[in-house]
Design brief:
Layout (H helix, E strand, L loop, with lengths): L12 E6 L4 E4 L1 H6 L19 H13 L3 E7 L2 E12 L2 E12 L12 H6 L1
Antiparallel strand pairs: 1-2, 1-5, 3-4, 4-5
């Protein structure tokens, strides 16, 4: 199998940028989601150009501080989890990855951690 071939058809949108915000990769879902903005032609452009000033400030802080930003949104009746996080090559900060997943409005939530013995004894 080609290295990372699974990500191409992954059902969530995946966008990878470098330390300057230049888009390096988009999977199929990201290309589809960004079709109106240029889709695949966005590779090589700066993702900062596609965001509001407020969002650009947050993205720059995430890059400068090598930190994650995780939240949910609702747009056009669809709820999504947005997970933006640093990526590293050989231990060196190399940019950000954004994963956008559609999630149900009534998504179950589980609390894990108790061992089987603890569950039986309680």
């Amino acid at each position: 199998m080609q290295e990372h071939a699974w990500i191409k058809s992954f059902p969530g949108a995946v966008i990878v940028c470098d330390r300057e915000g230049i888009i390096l990769e988009l999977n199929d879902k990201a290309v589809q989601n960004l079709a109106r903005e240029g889709g695949e032609k966005l590779v090589g452009t700066n993702m900062m150009d596609c965001h509001s000033e407020e969002s650009r400030i947050k993205l720059r802080e995430m890059i400068d501080q090598e930190r994650s930003n995780i939240y949910t949104i609702e747009k056009n009746g669809v709820k999504k989890l947005i997970y933006q996080t640093p990526w590293y090559a050989d231990g060196v900060f190399s940019g950000l990855v954004e994963i956008s997943l559609e999630i149900p409005f009534d998504m179950p939530h589980f609390i894990r951690g108790a061992t089987k013995a603890e569950q039986v004894d309680s």
